[in-house]
Amino acid sequence: MNVFFKQNIMKNKNLLKSWGILLFIMLFFQQSIMAAGYQVLLQGNRVTAMGNLGVGLRPDASSMFFNPGAMPFMEGNQIMLGINLVNSNIAFWDSQTPSSTNTALTESPIGTPFHVYAVWGPKDSRWKFALGAYTPFGSTITWGKEWQGRYLLDQIRLTAIYTQATASFKLTDKLSIGAGFVAMFGSVELQRVLPVTSDLESTLINLNGNSKTGFGYNVGLYWEISEKWQLGASYRSKIDAELEDGDVTFENVPSSLAGLFQPNKFSASLPLPSQISLGINFTPNDRLTVGVEANYIGWSAYESLDFNFADQNIAIQNIKSPRNYHDTYVFHLGGEYRIKNFQLRAGTYYDLSPVDKGYMTPETPDTNRFALSAGLGYSLGEKLQLDLSFLYNVGQKRTQTVEEAQAAGTYPSATNSTYAVEPGTYKLKAYIPGLSITYKF
Fold this sequence. Notes:
Elements: H1 3-11, H2 17-28, H3 45-49, H4 63-66, E1 78-84, E2 87-93, E3 103-105, E4 114-120, E5 127-134, E6 140-142, E7 155-170, E8 175-193, E9 204-210, E10 214-224, E11 229-236, E12 239-251, E13 264-272, E14 275-282, E15 288-297, E16 304-309, E17 319-322, E18 328-339, E19 342-351, E20 369-380, E21 384-400, H5 402-408, E22 424-440
Antiparallel strand pairs: 1-4, 1-22, 2-3, 2-22, 4-5, 5-7, 6-7, 7-8, 8-9, 8-10, 9-12, 10-11, 11-14, 12-13, 13-16, 14-15, 15-18, 16-17, 18-19, 19-20, 20-21, 21-22
């Protein structure tokens, strides 16, 4: 057996352990840049421009996602089409090596998440119905084959699509409720370097897979307390995301190791956390709306990642990796000012990370995140509405030490061989413009 391989396989006893972790984190919740954990919210550019203040807001078609209970208070019917352009990057510095100047920066192409909603109901009816599709998770992250964490991640491409059917009912002239049924579909392509020869770039592992359809629901309540005050509450359920019979292939494997790295199959699962949201808005006159909102995210459901291979050997083994996320909060503040056919919007939010010390991985080097947003709406007569938004999202610089990772059991030590994180300092940024077009009828 190749001597270099033997040394590295003993250092990284579970060679594919870290790869399995990042696969499912990225598959269903590409993150990383726009919200804590692996959650992304870009489901309506009016809402985005107001700091993602969607639960208590007087409704538009995006309410089927943010608060289905609000839809009966929407005037008429609507079809909304929207897109965002996600320009994001993650920077790394090897701060754990004295006097190190070793740095890396992701080179990811622009992502294009979209949303499509149709909300309708008979005139003067208390009912509203809606269908929608949106891509809250989908992007490409490329670290490259030169950076020191290449054994954890080279690049990943993923797609995830949610579809939703919704119904809501106005109980009284002040109060309404609603519920939606959600189906989720996803796919992933992943590549990383394997430390099996002295040519560190020569041997690659590739993974391709499609998720099973995952199911969930959301419910909401909306209360027009008065002409000036509106209150909304919503709940989105946890969805268990599962992938089965994914394909594992290898490139440029040395002939002496070919027996260990044969085409394989894999399966894994990951909980998509629940969320409870409460928002209240104040509309003192026809021109101004301001509001606040809080979200409680049930990240503690993500205790560990179980990852299974159809065929196992010394290099490829089933794993159970602790993640131990904790529940967190997101706090929002935003507003809208209306001048004739124009709507001026601005907002901010603060998103707390669920990732504890020692568990921060290169694909989700998660930190507390601060976001600023602004936007402009324009009404083209009674039928057409344009909404522009711009979101700047930055993660606080965070250093993960070798000692923290070893204490968590995610980095090699005298008693542990797991290599699932790359200690160092990480910084995240994202610049996200967006456009939505709404047709009213």
